[in-house]
């Protein structure tokens, strides 16, 4: 799927789309213990695979996680986020039910808010300059 330059090649598209996501737990509660990081990453990696995306980097602390995802153009980031949040919350609640205080979390694992930033490639100023230099007279 990726070539030596990091581009994804599909039937009709060549792309390099990366997104940095940060999810925080509801009320910023530190609910994750030392047993959960590996499983959180496995769950989120599988969700990404289901979208044809690749989880490039994953890390986090007791109250949040950071993800760097390389995704195809057809994968809408908002749908990917919804699936990552929903599937991971459901699985973590099922597998670690004794480690999460459901009363203080009010039945939710993640805050409904999240951080999302496109990343990779050249800075916007360089892209603008590149496009300006390719103007052709009509």
Automatic annotation (TrEMBL):
Pfam families per record: Y1_Tnp (PF01797)
GO molecular-function terms, A-Z: DNA binding; transposase activity
Membrane spanning stretches: none
Span of domain Transposase IS200-like: 14-134
SUPFAM superfamilies, alphabetized: Transposase IS200-like
Signal peptide: none
One GO BP: DNA transposition
UniProt xrefs under PANTHER family: TRANSPOSASE FOR INSERTION SEQUENCE ELEMENT IS200 (PTHR33360:SF2)
Protein name: IS605 family transposase
Phylogenetic classification of the source organism: Bacteria, Bacillati, Actinomycetota, Actinomycetes, Kitasatosporales
């Amino acid at each position: 799927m990726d070539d030596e330059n990091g581009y994804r090649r599909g039937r009709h598209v060549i792309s390099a789309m990366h997104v940095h996501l940060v999810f925080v737990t509801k009320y910023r509660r530190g609910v994750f213990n030392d047993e959960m990081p590996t499983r959180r990453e496995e769950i989120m990696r599988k969700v990404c695979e289901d979208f044809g995306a690749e989880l490039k980097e994953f890390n986090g602390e007791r109250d949040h996680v950071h993800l760097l995802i390389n995704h195809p153009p057809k994968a809408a980031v908002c749908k990917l986020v919804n699936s990552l949040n929903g599937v991971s919350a459901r699985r973590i609640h099922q597998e670690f039910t004794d480690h999460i205080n459901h009363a203080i979390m009010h039945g939710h694992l993640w805050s409904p808010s999240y951080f999302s930033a496109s990343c990779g490639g050249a800075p916007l100023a360089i892209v603008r300059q590149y496009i300006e230099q390719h103007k052709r007279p009509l």
